[in-house]
Each structure stands twice: as C-alpha cells, then as structure tokens.
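User: Hey, my collaborator sent me this sequence without any context and asked if I could get a structure. I don't really work with proteins. Can you help?
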Amino acid sequence: MPRIGSSDLTVFPLALGGNVFGWTADEATSHQVLDAYTGAGGDFVDTADVYSAWGDGNSGGESETVIGSWFAASGKRDDVTIATKVSQHPEFRGLSAETVAKAARASLQRLGTDRIDLYYAHFDDQDTPLEETVRAFDQLVREGLVRYTAISNYSAERASEWIRIAEEHDLAVPVAIQPHYNLVTREPYESEIAPLAAREHLGVVPYFALAAGFLTGKYRSSQDVAGKDREGQVSGYFSDQGLAVVDALSAIASAHTTEIASVALAWLQAQPDVVAPIASARNTEQLPALLASADLELSAEELQTLTDVSAAVPTS
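Assistant: No problem. I've predicted the 3D structure and written it out in structure-token form, which is a compact way to encode the shape of the chain:
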C-alpha cells in the first residue's frame, strides 16, 4: 500500500477513475464497478467537479453525485480515499478564493461527505494570484473540509512556486501531483515534473494511464476507434512507434498470461514516486485487467524493454 507523498494516506496502487460515472456508465453500473473495485481491495477513487459536463444532458458534478449515492448505499465512505478537483466546473471556473470555497462545498454536498481526502487544483489559473489560491486551499484544510491538497496539470515552474509560497507562509503544502503520463506520453513529465516530485516528495498519480484505452490493445487502427466515445482522446496516440509499444506490451502480457492493460499499468507503478495510476472502467468486465496490475511483477528486463521501445514514440 504506497503512501501519497508526505501524507498519512496509504492507498491501493491502482486508483479508480470516476470520469465515466454518469457519462458512459449509468448510476447502477457505476455502483457495480465501485462495489467490485472495493471488494477486490481497492480504496482510492479519483474524480473532479467537472466530470462529466461534456456528456449529453450533463452540467458537471455527475460523477461526484454518483459516488455520493454509492457512499450512502454502501456505507463505505470511511473505507475510501476520495480525490476530487476544482477549476473547471461550468459554475466554478478558475481558482479565486471565492470560487475554491464555493466549489469545495458543492463537491462535499454532491459526495455526501464532510471531508475531501485529496483536493486538487485541476488546471492552473494564471488570472488569479497564486498566493490567493494557495491560501484558499489552506483555509479548507484549516476548516477540516480537506485533508490534503494537491495539484494537477501544473508546469514544474508553477508547481514549485505554489510550494514555495506554502512553505514561506506556513500554509498547507501539496502532497501529490497528477500529470498526463503513460508509455506513449512520457514528456514533459519525465524531464520536468519527475525531478520536482522527487525533490519535493510529491506522490505522483498519473492520469490517462492507459492512454484513453490505446494501451489496452483494443485499438490497432484509427478505424477501430471511429465513432467511439473516446475517439477524440484516443486518435492522438496512433503512430507506428505507439503501435510498437502495444506489440511489446502484448508479448510481455502473453508471457505472464495476463492482459495488455495490466502490463502497461505495472510499468507505470514501477516508476519512481508513482503512487497509483488512474484507470477507469465503464463496467465490471473491464476491472479485472486493471486490478491485476497491483500483483503483477515485471522483471527488470521487461521494464527496460518497455522503456526502450516507448522512448521512440514522438513527443507531441
């Protein structure tokens, strides 16, 4: 059970992504996925207040609402580390002090809980003074509404400045960072964010860990993804070099009698400072491959093979 940075939060090494809840997974199916994930030992659920505003008929907050109804039905709130994010909800855009305060309370209401375990600034807001944002997050911690703060999609420079401000003024210091990182998107994480995470003892919780499904092996051509819900997300990963990564994953998966997705996640879990990659499942059938990564031990040679073949993928 890895620890999230300098916090006292220890979690299952695979975070369940909530972006599909209330979007491609309805409430009943989402509850089944959450039941199956926690039943298998999982205890780390990641969402955001904006999930999934882009869905037909949605306005944002659907994922949190679904998770909240599951907490109420299951009674498992105290068994789960819940992470959510602020800055992108249509009613709460940006990171001004007022917005952060109101958005956090709206998330708490939807989740049906009295505290958020890990609260992320979802995207940088350069129109708001950074110190104002840092103080707003600290205030939530002081009020007991948030246990730990975190940042997502920040440049290394801006993340460093957040930490400097927090330390200088004795405010809550982030314990985690959430970057876009996987076998076919290794930059700018490895050259810019990874050194920061190591230096500041930040737990790394990568999103798009399976490259929107590309690293499951089910999409081998652009035709395979045409018309799918994630077409826009997956299409950007296609390249000859990216497909070579999938081929290498397939060979290693066969040697372990496991799924391609399990190997892709296991590679991420083996990287320095990575606590738990985020992966979502829109039904219970997709869960076993994700969960299996927690017990899959790749050899040093297999890890190096994947590192080498993925190094050839073009940087976007």
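In plain terms: The chain has a mean pLDDT of 95. You can pass these tokens on to your collaborator as they are.
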